[in-house]
Amino acid sequence: MNKVIMHIDMDAFFASVEVRDNPPLKGKPTAVVGANERTVLVSPSYEARSFGVRTGMTKTAAKKLCPLIKFIVADSKKYTSACREIIKILYTFTPYIEVYSIDEFFIDVTNSHHLFGTPEQTAIMIKDAIKNKLGLPCTIGISYNKLLAKIASDNNKPDGLFTIEEENRDSVIGPLDVASVWGIGPSTSKKLHNMGIRTLGDLRKVSYNFLHGRFGAYGGLLYNMSRGIGDDEVVTPDKEERAKSIGHSMTFKEDTRDINVLKVYLLELSRKVAERLRRENLTGRCVALTVRYKSFQTFTRQKSIDAFINTTGRIHKLACDILKSIDLKEPVRLLGVSVSILRQSDYKGFLFKEEEKKHKLDAVLDEISSMYGDEAITFASLAKVKKHKRIISPAWRPSGTRNY
Q1: Domains in the chain: how many in total?
Q2: CATH number of the domain residue 84 falls in
Q3: Structural domain of 199
Q4: CA distances from 238 to 4, 99, 235, 400 (A)
């Protein structure tokens, strides 16, 4: 029996949530942005998109295209709450759910759609349930693997439904530009374009040996993708691969090369990373520092140690050590801290009292933050640091290391 896979794509998710909660905005061009003055658009409504406004644009550029656009500062708690409610609805149709991102889901209804009718009837019921219970529109793509289900959902947005079967597969995917296909990144699509391969139809004419010779094992994936062959396993939370690193980044309101100011921000980033490590009972022994200059030049430096750590103080010290080793050529726009080479904590106590005291302090801070939020308590040096509402990461998940 062929699999029945659906891709549920929430239409302009953040913007749709904001419009739902502020009905006078309905039908008007809107866009969700970060609180930082130098933020970019993270979710323009379809009304705004009709003017050429796109995700990633600056507010100034969006205003030039659409002078009447309304900007709304992101509220991550709203979006994560809506995501959890969507998941609850999906579980009433199947236990096989993959949370691909905060606004995208793959589900396998191969063995359950008959309880609701045909795959299309099932999809309509899902769309209606999400619309009626949450007031949010979505588009659903249906096919026999994830690749084609994703392509199908891109084919009829917004608030649409589209099915790709073997009979219409080639006519639907053949004309698609390789740059628009899920799984083909900008670098690869540029190489393919330079080779005269612009569409999946063009790609299908190229031999396996040629693609493998140019792209290695990835060439085999490209060969399969051009034929609509893809992974059809929906990765449920219990099968999801553990994150290889845990990190946070911060864009500053003003660029700076003041080392003391940068160290203060590094403390905040280190605290967030350490808290997530401890929550998942993880430790790591490689700390990485990412720096983005005013010119947007971005680079990463890292330092490994023999011990596995998850305390704020030790992560912060290593991050500061890396910062000291960098000769800053320009003012800094963004800093990021991450910890990798992770393993489960095997805490058996501390040899030195000072280390034990730091561990207990972190545990108390974690508990207070969990009960009352991040703003309830912090380090004195961070008291004057202006904090902005965080824009939820695309990697966010409702559980595990990526729930932050």
Answers
A1: 3
A2: 3.30.70.270
A3: 174-225
A4: 21, 11, 8, 10
What is 279-333 written as a DSSP string? Answer: HTTEEEEEEEEEEEETT--EEEEEEEEEEEE--HHHHHHHHHHHHHT----S-EE
Give the pLDDT of residue 377.
Answer: 63
pLDDT value of position 375: 62
> What pLDDT score was predicted for residue 170?
92
How do residues 78-100 score in pLDDT, each as one tens digit? 999 999 999 999 999 999 999 99
Structure tokens given for 271: 């605290």
Q: Which residue from 185, 25, 6, 198 is spatially nearest to 108, judged by alpha carbons? A: 6
Cα distance between residue 226 and residue 172, in whole Å:
11
Average pLDDT of span 236-257: 82
Q: Indicate yes or no: pTM above 0.90.
A: no
CATH of the domain at 266: 3.30.1490.100
Task: Confirm whether 309 is domain-assigned.
Answer: yes
Query: Which residues are tagged catalytic?
Result: 104
Q: Are 147 and 184 in contact (CB under 8 A)?
A: no
Shared-domain flag, residues 305 and 376:
yes
Residue 65 lies inside a defined structural domain of this protein: yes
Following DSSP, what letter does each residue of 245-266 receive, concatenated? Answer: EEEEEEEEEEEE--HHHHHHHH
Clarify whether residues 15 and 123 are in a common domain.
yes
98's enclosing H/E stretch is strand 97-101
